[in-house]
């Protein structure tokens, strides 16, 4: 049940049911989501959107395992597992007075935090592969994946829209890319025509690097040291900054001596 899609004055009746004649328009008795979920699971998405009255009723349901239909005085019991989700910080919502503290602590038995995409960049290649496979089938195309520039850009992009943004950009890129061609950077972000120029201007000049005393090992060490210093020696953060997994960074750190 998506709590954000139901008007606040109807949420309680959707959750717990309503008796005939309870209010104008209630022409028949209707059971709610909790009764239907008896001995099963109910998933409440955007739980922060529950009205204060619905929050109080949900708290009672969690504590006592019982409830009353709207317009009824008969207590009913159900055995339900409750899973909730929210795209906001519920703890902050409690501090702001928008969510009941007692309900928050009752729900917070086994919290699962899903980090934003920018904090798990190692998932990006697998997600790209998954979405492209789907869109190739949908649009009857076979593509050669992302160009090197596009790959490097998506690995450094902050992804404010998370996985949905990645999914939508890949669908658009599939539409804009010809059959048997690579997806180029401008096909991922056609609204930003100067992205490729910005990307190119941000890259180091290879000719300047390849001097007589050039050392690839030293360059790698300098980059890793710089990332570690910038992240206060937090290995996980440094790995995300470098676009590699923590295990890969751990392996490379064993080969060098940090200053």
Structural commentary:
This protein has 259 residues and is mainly α. It is 48% helix and 7% strand. The strands form two sheets. It has a two-stranded parallel sheet with strand order 1-4. It has a two-stranded antiparallel sheet with strand order 2-3. Strand 2 and strand 3 (75-77) form a beta hairpin. Helix 6 crosses helix 8 and helix 12 (216-230) packs across helix 13. The N and C termini lie far apart (54 Å). The model has no long low-confidence stretch (mean pLDDT 86).
Which structural traits does this protein have?
two-stranded antiparallel ribbon; elongated; two-stranded parallel sheet; single chain; mainly alpha; 4 strands
Question: Which structural category fits the helices and strands?
Answer: mainly alpha
Shape: elongated
Helix tally equals: 14
| Major sheet size, sense and barrel closure | 2 strands, parallel
Spatial strand order of the main sheet: 1-4
List the helices and strands and how they pair.
Blueprint: H1 8-16, H2 33-36, E1 40-45, H3 52-64, E2 66-68, E3 75-77, E4 80-85, H4 90-95, H5 101-107, H6 124-138, H7 148-156, H8 162-176, H9 185-188, H10 195-202, H11 206-209, H12 216-230, H13 235-242, H14 246-253
Parallel strand pairs: 1-4
Antiparallel strand pairs: 2-3
Helix pairs in contact: 3-5, 6-8, 12-13, 13-14
């Amino acid at each position: 049940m998506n709590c954000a899609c139901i008007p606040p004055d109807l949420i309680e009746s959707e959750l717990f049911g309503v008796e005939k004649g309870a209010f104008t328009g209630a022409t028949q008795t209707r059971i709610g989501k909790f009764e239907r979920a008896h001995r099963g699971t109910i998933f409440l998405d955007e739980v922060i959107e529950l009205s204060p009255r619905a929050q109080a009723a949900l708290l009672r349901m969690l504590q006592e395992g019982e409830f009353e239909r709207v317009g009824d005085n008969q207590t009913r019991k159900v055995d339900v597992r409750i899973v909730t989700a929210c795209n906001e910080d519920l703890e902050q919502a409690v501090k702001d007075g928008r969510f009941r503290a007692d309900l928050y602590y009752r729900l917070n038995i086994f919290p699962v935090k899903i980090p934003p995409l920018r904090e798990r960049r190692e998932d990006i290649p697998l997600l790209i592969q998954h979405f492209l496979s789907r869109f190739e089938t949908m649009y009857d195309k076979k593509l050669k994946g992302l160009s090197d520039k596009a790959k490097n850009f998506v690995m450094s992009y902050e992804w404010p829209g998370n996985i949905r943004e990645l999914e939508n950009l890949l669908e658009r890129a599939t539409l804009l890319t010809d059959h048997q061609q690579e997806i180029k950077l401008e096909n991922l972000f056609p609204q930003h025509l100067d992205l490729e120029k910005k990307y190119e201007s941000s890259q180091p000049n290879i000719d300047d690097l390849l001097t007589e005393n050039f050392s690839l090992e030293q360059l790698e060490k300098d980059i890793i040291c710089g990332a570690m210093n910038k992240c206060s020696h937090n290995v996980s953060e440094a790995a995300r900054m470098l676009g590699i997994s923590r295990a890969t960074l751990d392996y490379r750190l064993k080969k060098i001596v940090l200053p």
